[in-house]
Amino acid sequence: MAPETPAPSPTPPHPPHPPGTPARRLLPLVLPAIVVGVVCALILLGVSLLAEQLQDVLWESLPDALGVGGFSSVWMVVMLTATGLAVGLVLRAVPGHGGPDPATTGLVDAPMRPGVVPGLLLVTTLALAGGVSLGPENPITAANIALAFWLGRRFAPGAPGEVWVALAAAGTIGALFGTPVAAALILSEVLASQPGPGAFWDRLFAPLAAGTAGALTMSLIAEPSFGLSLPAYTGPHWGDLLSALLIASAGALLGLLAVYAFPVAHRVFAALRHPVLALTAGGLALGLLGALGGHLTLFKGLDEVKTLAGDPDGWSAGEFAGMAIVKMAALVIAATCGFRGGRIFPSVFAGVSLGLCAHALVDAVPPSLAVSCAVLGVLLAVTRQGWVSLFTAAVLVGDASVLPLLCAATLPAWLLVTGRAQMQLDADGKSLR
Questions:
Q1: Which of 9, 135, 143, 253 has its CA 20 to 30 A from that of 104?
Q2: pTM of the model
């Protein structure tokens, strides 16, 4: 779907710089940034709450009424297949058909037409509730960017359109992670690579305000938490350095396997030549994977990782490894058959499972260190964003003492992933690099 007006870049460049001193240039951006951040958080919260209510109906009330197990293998296959069929039919009927092929989109892209947003939010809600292994980040960010760009161009036509992209992206990311730090880190990688007037922090000022507003809104209403209840890390120790390097590298290799399977899976579903058929087949495949890996491998994975972390010795190394592989396979299938969703949260689940597998194999490896390093490696391969991968890995364990080892573990993992294919396709179905 082409943007409403030509956009110079799919990523947010620097904010506008009206004449005057730096402070006088930045102050007028504060109020728009706060408004955009709050609205972005409310849209995310609304979709999340609606999906949770529908999830309760589909996975608890309905199977109870039918006298079947909510997470029985049969119900998982039926529900995921039905979800694929429902999403396919909705995409066929709604204006704009939910935007471009999700396999070709990233976290922050050029704005879509606002008429696409209702259908996009509807299919996102259905996928989240139906158990699809994707997070809300990509479609919610796309919807918020589209709305902010459309409204901003009408109420403030003198401001460059790209400023609204930056504010909406920052507000949404801040709300997703419950902190503006994540938004600042993601946008800092973009801004650092783009020329533009003003000091770096001047250019980051307005997006940081939007990210702060989004994070505070979400925190005050929903109180999100990403910390896992893992045993406290007592290191660092010299032996932990080797463990960190090996586990992060293993996570990067697992992520790369998914990355290279991505275009292959996309070609398989594209060969079906009909979105409804592709999504129904994808839903069936996800249901079969759920039956294989267990119900914890369903959904976006944020609540499920807390279950795993609450009992790090509750599964064998083989079971943890199986869940990690199943989750990455489910992520690839969901993102290539046509479901709208993001890849960060399911990647975190796969990383947590892999880290706990390492701890189960070698009990001397602290679970907090193993989990954070595995998550780091998987996210580096899937997102190619170093700062947000480090941030997410550190936040999960909530212990600053792991940071030196995480930074060391980043080095071999980055050498494995840099310059290789990415988990995003171009218009011809080829992997970006």
A1: 253
A2: 0.90
